[in-house]
């Protein structure tokens, strides 16, 4: 499916809603990559998966997939020579523990969810690895009992620290240093014990200055007497770090040996998160598993647009190989666009393995392509689309359409001359039908409605409109096109029946009587004001005869043409519609009198006997005319091209 279809049908919003139900970053990322399939068996397998997951959620809403976060990055850094840190090893243990919980969770689900519960078998139990990690790593550090050498070294460190503290405290309490001390405390700088000495007594004490106070009045000195004890402690700590690295290297090796099993377990757990997120969403929209086919059958029963929720009006329609093109008519904001979007979006959802908000008896066809040309009249952004850009889109649709394509067209042919737009729309629909596509199209053109009534394979539909409330009901009626509601609505809103009757005659070239429901005297008087005879004497009207006042121009008049402001010379006219033939820049054009303004009259420009052929005829024609005036000439003709 192309990106334009995905965006237009708002399928990305569906994915965003599903993402909210995923518990892990990896699961959310997989939902973001969700794309429809065109393989019927694969789609059926996906639908079965979701159905089983829904059944599991009905009995147990909490699924243990929380241990996945951060695992993808850890797996990616394995076997690159780096030793795993204690916190990373703890993460591996949490993941293995989560896998164990999932195994126990799925144990009793095999009877009603055999497919989903069987996925746990892809996860190998790794008890040895888990037990070694928990034995060696505790509270975010390597445990004392991870190795005998580490236990021995840490005991030595404890002894050295005790001796160092004791010796340092002896120095503070001794009278030798009492005068030099800033305060009787022992502190550490860079892991070494120091005592605070007043600056002026620096030379009185042998030792190394490791730090100075902010004011500079206090020096933190490591006395010479404790240096040997401090060095012994430093060497022991270095031995501890080496031994810890040995333990961490050992555990890293154990993890890397099981990389393939861990990677497969992670993929399985990500799939579980992905699957149960889809199932939770399907429960949220009250979705049903519908059947799918490759026989061009679309049968939706009580279907709703998933993004509209409970506000959506149920939609029911059916298309098959005998009738695979639906033309929908109806008023603006009546729900035509939502209807075709609903069909397209639900088809996308099913081909992604999702349940849809429709009756279980519904059926949808698997399409290789869904091509759309939808400009929502209620959207400011879509109103920026021009007729040209939509035609470019239609061209791509015509090129890509096959007999495995669903085509959705909104207000086909709009944005241009109604007559030409109607003809173009009809031709496009015929071509798409001949290509074998399933078609849903909306239109305002009554001629297309008549075309659908008589053309094989097409069926009419209309959006219901309530004349009592003057509002759409958003219900789709299949089998007949919508009647024009403009006259009925205008009459309901208070237009005089005579005006409606005249409009009906102009539109349909037939007489029809309209009556008002108004009975109140004062309302009837107000109504009559609309058709009262104009009292101005200089304005006359004749309802029985329509006369057109046409500006009169003479042959040879120099005129100005609006809105281009070009100049031309009148050649002939007017005709019955008030059109003149005007020569502009050597070419004759048919221009309506309303666009012509006299610039210089012919009698002011030319003498009475002026030969206008000099202006309007070519030099060649004038030569031929002169020859013919002298006598008959064989094979000589003059072409007066107007």
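-> sequence recovered:
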């Amino acid at each position: 499916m192309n990106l334009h279809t995905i965006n237009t049908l708002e399928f990305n919003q569906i994915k965003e809603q599903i993402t909210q139900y995923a518990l892990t970053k990896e699961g959310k990322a997989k939902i973001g990559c969700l794309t429809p399939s065109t393989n019927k068996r694969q789609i059926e397998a996906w639908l079965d998966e979701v159905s089983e997951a829904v059944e599991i959620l009905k009995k147990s809403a909490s699924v243990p997939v929380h241990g996945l976060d951060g695992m993808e990055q850890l797996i990616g850094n394995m076997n690159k020579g780096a030793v795993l840190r204690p916190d990373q090893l703890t993460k591996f243990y949490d993941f293995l523990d989560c896998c164990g919980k999932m195994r126990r969770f799925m144990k009793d689900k095999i009877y009603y969810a055999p497919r989903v519960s069987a996925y746990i078998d892809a996860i190998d139990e790794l008890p040895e690895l888990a037990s070694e990690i928990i034995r060696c790593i505790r509270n975010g550090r390597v445990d004392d009992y991870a190795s005998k050498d580490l236990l021995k070294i840490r005991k030595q460190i404890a002894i050295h620290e005790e001796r160092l503290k004791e010796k340092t405290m002896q120095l503070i309490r001794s009278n030798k240093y009492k005068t030099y001390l800033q305060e009787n405390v022992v502190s550490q700088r860079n892991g070494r014990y120091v005592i605070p000495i007043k600056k002026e007594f620096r030379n009185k004490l042998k030792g190394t200055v490791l730090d100075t106070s902010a004011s500079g009045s206090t020096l933190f000195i490591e006395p010479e007497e404790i240096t040997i004890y401090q060095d012994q402690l430093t060497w022991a700590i270095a031995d501890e770090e080496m031994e810890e690295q040995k333990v961490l290297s050992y555990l890293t090796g154990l993890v890397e040996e099981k990389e393939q099993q861990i990677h497969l377990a992670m993929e399985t757990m990500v799939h579980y998160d992905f699957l149960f997120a889809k199932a939770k969403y399907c429960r949220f929209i009250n979705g049903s598993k519908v059947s799918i086919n490759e026989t061009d059958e679309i049968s939706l029963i009580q279907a709703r647009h998933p993004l509209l929720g409970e506000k959506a009006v149920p939609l029911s329609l059916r298309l098959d190989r005998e009738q695979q093109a639906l033309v929908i008519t109806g008023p603006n904001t009546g729900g035509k666009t939502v209807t075709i979007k609903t069909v397209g979006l639900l088809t996308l959802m099913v081909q992604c393995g999702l349940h849809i908000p429709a009756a279980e008896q519904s059926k949808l066809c698997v399409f290789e392509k869904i091509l759309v040309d939808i400009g929502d009249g209620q959207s400011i952004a879509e109103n920026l689309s021009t007729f040209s850009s939509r035609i470019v889109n239609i061209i791509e649709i015509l090129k890509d359409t096959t007999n495995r394509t669903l085509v959705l067209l909104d207000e086909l042919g709009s944005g241009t001359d109604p007559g030409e737009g109607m003809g173009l729309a009809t031709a496009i629909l015929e071509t798409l039908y001949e290509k074998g596509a399933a078609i849903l199209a909306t239109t305002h053109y009554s001629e297309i409605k008549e075309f659908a009534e008589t053309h094989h394979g097409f069926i009419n539909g209309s959006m219901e409109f309530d004349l009592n409330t003057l509002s759409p009901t958003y219900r789709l009626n299949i089998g007949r096109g919508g009647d024009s509601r403009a006259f009925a609505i205008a009459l309901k809103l208070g237009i005089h029946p005579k005006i409606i009757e005249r409009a009906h005659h102009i539109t349909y070239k037939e007489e029809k009587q309209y009556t008002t429901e108004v009975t109140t005297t004062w309302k009837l008087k107000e109504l009559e004001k609309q058709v009262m005879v104009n009292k101005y004497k200089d304005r006359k009207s004749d309802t029985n005869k329509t006369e057109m006042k046409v500006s009169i121009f003479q042959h040879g008049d120099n005129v100005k043409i609006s809105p281009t402001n070009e100049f031309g010379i009148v050649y002939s006219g007017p005709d019955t519609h008030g059109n003149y033939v005007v020569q502009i820049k050597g070419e004759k054009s048919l221009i309506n009198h309303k666009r012509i303004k006299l610039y210089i009259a012919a009698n002011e420009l030319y003498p009475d006997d002026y030969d206008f052929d000099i202006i309007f005829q070519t030099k060649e024609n004038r030569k031929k005319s002169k020859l013919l005036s002298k006598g008959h000439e064989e094979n000589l003709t003059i072409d007066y091209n107007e």
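Confidence is low (pLDDT under 50) at residues 376-385, 539-546.
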